[in-house]
Amino acid sequence: QVQLVESGGGLVQPGGSLRLSCTASSSLFRLYVMGWYRQAPGKQREYVAGISTDGSTNYRDSVKGRFTISRDNAKKTLYLQMNSLKPEDTAVYYCTPIRTLRGDSTGSWGQGTQVTVSS
User: Fold this and answer.
1) How far apart are CA 25 and CA 28, in angstroms?
2) Pair 49, 34: CB distance under 8 Å
């Protein structure tokens, strides 16, 4: 099972930006379809974005045009650039290998990184 470490979260004002990173332990990272999920207090974990091995991407509607998912296979790292942040983006963000670009985590999760959007 791949080990994942997320980082880059923090407190940001509405309209601000953050870049999240997720570093994987496995050299097979380049073969994984990868995704970002988030979980807000009292809510279910939800799919945010995914990226395939060929760079194809998919986003939930509420983040389209604001978030960009990318990957660096040489560094075994997944990124999520988040711009124009809104208070409703506040959540713990997790990365995970996914089975398709519609989501469906394989069940390997990191510890998550907290993103708080507040003035």
Assistant:
1) 9
2) no
**Residue 4, CA distances (Å) to 11, 24, 35, 37 in order:** 22, 5, 12, 13
Average pLDDT for runs of 10 along the chain of length 119: 95 98 94 97 96 97 98 97 98 96 89 97
Q: What pLDDT score does 106 carry?
A: 87
Helix (H, G, I), strand (E, B) or coil at 34: strand
What is the structure's pLDDT at 107?
Answer: 86
pLDDT at 94: 98
- How many helices (H) and strands (E) are present in the chain, helices listed first? 0, 11
- Residues 55 and 78 sit within 8 Å (Cβ to Cβ): no
Closest CA to 80 of 101, 66, 97, 100: 66
**What type of residue sits at position 108?**
S
User: Do the bridges between strand 10-12 and strand 113-117 make them parallel or antiparallel, or are there none, so unpaired?
Assistant: parallel
User: Is the Cβ–Cβ distance between 9 and 115 less than 8 Å?
Assistant: yes
